[in-house]
Each structure stands twice: as structure tokens, then as C-alpha cells.
Design the sequence.
């Protein structure tokens, strides 16, 4: 079992480069199921979720080769097994993204209902409703969803914006007969990135990044060479760390437009935000002010930065109300922050953070991916030693976080502790 050992407080300062976005790389990898030609993906992050998905794709006949910093995916064999078993998908919800491509390419898929972080109910009913509208027969049995059929273009409106739902159905519709119009789509940058990849493969998709996406189905898709967009959540985590520690961090290789909701908040609490050709520089020397937050689908404030922002508010003057509207169980990090001295009071989907409070090092336990990051930031800002347990959550989505924090001046080390 691995843990992070942190000695604080330290001030984060320097330059750090954003890795490729995990949440864009995952659907990009599953797009390899749509073609018989090689797919070259660049800037794929080295994180656990990617390795997990590669194992699943290998099971489905897609091999992967690393060459000159790129990941090349190609169909190595025609697999008669279009099944995504529980053992391969239980740790990662994004595994459901094989459903649409398999159905579109071979007419059949059987996928275990997915797992992932324990942050609340994340149903895939929108995926299944849309695939049914496209002509699929959907059956649920013994923890699996099985879909069969030939797909025909349709008009479908999602009951609510869903990122993986939009991505899954967009991939399925790319090979459907006729035109599909999807309404109330997710507008996240990762959806746009997938559409750009699919179009490079020969798809005909327009409107990605807007509420309505139009897909004109094609008979087949080919090869492509695609660079994954920067990870706005990873990059945003380091920028929050700069303000939390009254530091000065320049994030290189990031897209400021994708980070606009966060940058607006950081400027609102009193930090200095500068955007240039070199990157995004965030620095803060004085006190910061509390500022309320409500998560929302893009272009609102991302739920995946809520936990990190909560850590920041523990050091702000005043009281901040944080409203979580995406997931109903995403304040599990609050009791762990309280162990470090934070004053946070949770009532349903709202948390009130009273600051500023001096944080002190403690033993804490990560409960999900983003909670891991928020506790590590707290440890960097806290007085004394902090040990963050269960960082396997962190490794699902952050590439070499301890190395990047070390480059910014943090005293953080990865500990390997034998299982008792």
C-alpha cells in the first residue's frame, strides 16, 4: 500500500506542465474500437485509469504500442468476445465507453455495470435511452447491460447533460445509418476533443461544445493522429495550490478558456491571474477572501475541482458556502479536512467553510480521486507532517503528482508500506 508523506508548510512556486487530460484520453482510446486502422494518440497521461482501459481494450482485441511518446492502438485480432467483464471494469466508470463503439462496429456488446469513485449514484440510463432511440435492443441482467442491433439516425434529447453519455452516443451514431441529432448535450472540452478525433478519423460531427450535436453517419472510420488536450482538472489543482500556499505558479501547456470558471474564482478571492503565450500564472501574497461556489456542468465550475477549492476556502477570510449540484455524495473529504483543523459544516448538498483556520498535519484517508488531491494540497499548506492514505485513488488521474509538487518546492514523498 502506498501513501504520501508531506512536511509543511511550504510555498509552491515555479513552473509546471499540465499532462494530457485523462477524461479526454479515455474516450479517445475507446474510439479505437470503431476502426480497423491504427489510431495514434499523443500526450496520453500515464495514470492508472489509462492502464485499466488498455487491459480492457486488449481483451477486446485492440493492442497498444508506445513509440516516440505516442500510444498507437490497432486491432490485432477479430475478437469474438464483445464482453467487458466485471473484473476489468469494476474500478472505473469510464469503461462503459466501450458500449457505443462496440455496438456500432459489431452490432453487439455486453458490459458490466461500471464502478469508480464512491461519490454517489452515477447511472447510465441516459446512455441506454439514447442507444434505444438509435434502434438498439437493451437488456439488463445479473449486473450486465447487453445491447444488440443495427443503428439508425434519430433525434434524441438527454434528460440532463452527461459527459460520458454524450461521448458514448456520439461514437455510436458516427457509424449509424443516417443523421442523428443529440440535444441537451454535455459541453465539456473533453467532448469537443473526442469530436475532433472522430472527425479526423472520417466522421461527420458538428456542434460539439454546444447543446446540440449533429452526426451524419458514415460507413467506416479510418486512421488518425491526435494530440489529447491538456488536463484542466490537474492544472487547476496546481493553480489552487499556488493561492492556498501564497505562492507563484505558472501552468504551461494549458488552455485558459477551458479553465475560465476556475480563473474567475481565483481572481475573485484576491489572487493575481495572468494569461500569456507562456502559460497561466497565478500568484498571491496577501489575504484571500471567502467566495461562494456552486458546481455546474461546463461552462460552470467543474465538480472535479470542488474538493480542492474547499481546501482553499479553509484559509480564506469569512464564510464560504459550497453547493454541489452534480453528485450527491461528494463531501467525503470534509471530515478529513476537519482532522487537520478545518471548520466545515455539511448540510445535504451544501457545505459552509469557516475561515481562516490554521491547518495542522495529521493522518488522513483519501476517499476518491479529487479528495486525494485536496488532502495533499492541505498537507502542503499545513504545519507539520501529514500522511495521506489510500492514494491509489490519486494515481487514477494524476500523473507523477509528487514529482510535480517537488518541482514546485513541496516536501512530499511517496511511501510504500507493506500490507499487514
Sequence:
Amino acid at each position: 500500500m502506498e501513501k504520501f508523506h508531506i512536511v509543511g508548510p511550504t510555498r509552491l512556486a515555479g513552473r509546471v506542465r499540465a499532462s494530457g487530460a485523462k477524461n479526454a484520453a479515455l474516450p479517445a482510446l475507446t474510439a479505437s474500437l470503431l476502426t480497423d486502422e491504427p489510431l495514434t494518440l499523443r500526450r496520453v497521461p500515464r495514470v492508472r485509469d489509462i492502464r485499466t482501459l488498455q487491459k480492457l481494450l486488449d481483451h477486446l482485441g485492440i493492442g497498444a504500442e508506445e513509440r516516440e511518446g505516442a500510444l498507437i492502438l490497432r486491432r490485432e485480432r477479430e475478437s469474438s468476445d464483445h464482453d467487458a467483464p466485471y473484473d476489468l471494469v469494476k474500478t472505473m466508470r469510464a469503461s462503459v465507453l466501450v458500449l457505443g463503439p462496440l455496438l456500432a462496429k459489431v452490432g453487439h456488446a455486453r458490459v458490466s455495470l461500471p464502478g469508480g469513485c464512491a461519490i454517489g449514484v452515477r447511472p447510465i440510463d441516459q446512455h441506454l435511452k439514447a442507444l434505444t432511440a438509435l434502434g438498439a435492443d437493451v437488456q439488463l441482467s445479473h449486473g450486465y447491460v447487453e445491447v444488440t442491433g443495427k443503428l439508425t439516425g434519430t433525434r434524441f434529447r438527454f434528460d440532463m447533460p452527461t459527459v460520458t453519455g454524450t461521448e458514448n452516443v456520439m461514437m455510436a451514431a458516427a457509424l449509424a445509418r443516417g443523421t442523428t441529432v443529440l440535444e441537451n448535450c454535455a459541453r465539456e472540452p473533453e467532448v469537443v476533443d473526442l469530436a475532433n478525433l472522430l472527425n479526423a478519423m472520417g466522421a461527420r460531427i458538428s456542434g460539439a461544445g454546444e447543446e446540440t450535436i449533429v452526426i451524419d453517419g458514415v460507413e467506416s472510420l479510418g486512421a488518425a493522429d491526435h494530440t489529447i488536450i491538456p488536463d484542466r482538472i490537474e492544472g487547476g489543482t496546481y493553480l489552487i495550490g499556488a493561492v492556498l500556499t501564497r505562492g507563484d505558479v505558472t501552468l504551461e501547456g494549458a488552455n485558459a478558456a477551458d479553465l475560465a470558471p476556475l480563473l474567475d474564482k481565483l481572481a475573485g478571492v484576491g489572487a493575481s491571474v495572468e494569461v500569456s503565450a507562456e502559460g497561466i500564472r497565478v500568484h498571491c501574497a496577501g489575504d484571500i477572501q471567502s467566495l461562494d461556489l456552486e458546481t455546474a456542468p461546463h461552462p460552470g465550475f467543474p465538480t472535479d475541482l470542488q474538493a480542492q477549492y474547499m481546501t482553499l476556502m479553509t484559509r480564506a477570510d469569512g464564510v464560504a458556502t459550497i453547493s454541489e449540484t452534480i453528485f450527491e455524495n461528494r463531501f467525503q473529504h470534509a471530515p478529513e479536512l476537519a482532522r487537520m483543523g478545518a471548520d466545515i459544516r455539511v448540510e445535504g448538498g451544501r457545505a459552509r467553510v469557516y475561515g481562516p483556520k490554521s491547518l495542522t498535519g495529521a493522518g488522513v484517508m483519501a476517499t476518491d480521486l479529487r479528495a486525494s488531491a485536496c488532502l495533499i494540497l492541505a498537507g502542503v499548506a499545513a504545519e507539520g507532517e501529514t500522511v495521506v492514505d489510500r492514494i491509489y485513488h490519486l494515481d487514477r488521474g494524476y500523473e507523477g503528482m509528487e514529482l510535480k509538487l517537488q518541482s514546485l518546492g513541496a516536501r512530499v514523498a511517496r511511501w510504500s508500506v507493506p500490507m499487514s
Remarks:
- Confidence is low (pLDDT under 50) at residues 116-121.
- The chain is about 30% helix and 25% strand.
- The CA atoms of residues 294 and 348 lie 14 Å apart.
- The first helix runs from residue 22 to 30.
